[in-house]
Specification:
With 160 residues, this protein is mainly alpha-helical. It has 4 helices and 3 strands, in the order ααααβββ. Mean pLDDT is 85; it is low at 1-6. It binds fe (ii) ion (2 copies). One fe (ii) ion (FE2) binds next to α3 and α4.
Amino acid sequence: MSSQQPPQTQTVLSLGLPFMDDNHQEFDDMLSQALLASDTELLAEWQALINHATLHFGMEDEWMAASHYASAKNHQTQHLVVLQVMLEGLQRGQQGEFDAVRQMVCELKNWFGHHTQSLDAALALHLRSVGTRPEDGFVPSPNNRHWDRRGGGIVERQPR
Ligand SMILES: [Fe+2]
Ligand SMILES: [Fe+2]
């Protein structure tokens, strides 16, 4: 795999919310890096993707809950299923099935492009419609929930 040409640099579709776009660009960059990983690097790259996806998907799930998003269930289910498949991929990789993991990296990259342009785009539209602050992801809601990237989780915060 290391003899392959690097994939073309891609610009992930901007959804008009920098706190989402940053996450998506980071995930896409990590996927591109995993496509180039050697056998000795592959499992670490895959584990890093799982770690990122856990946080990234969890963050979106929290935004959906905080803003009472009507289409949350379908979106959250897709996140859950993909994470389960990624964990199965880790097990297969740990058993030496590197080709299976490489196939999953390709499929995940394709899925991610579709997901960003469909479900994430719809979520971004909703978040903007309820007045989410583009600069930091503060979601106006009864709980005043806010994504704090520095803390790595959702924290309760009063609006400014
Ligand atoms: Fe996303
Ligand atoms: Fe999503």
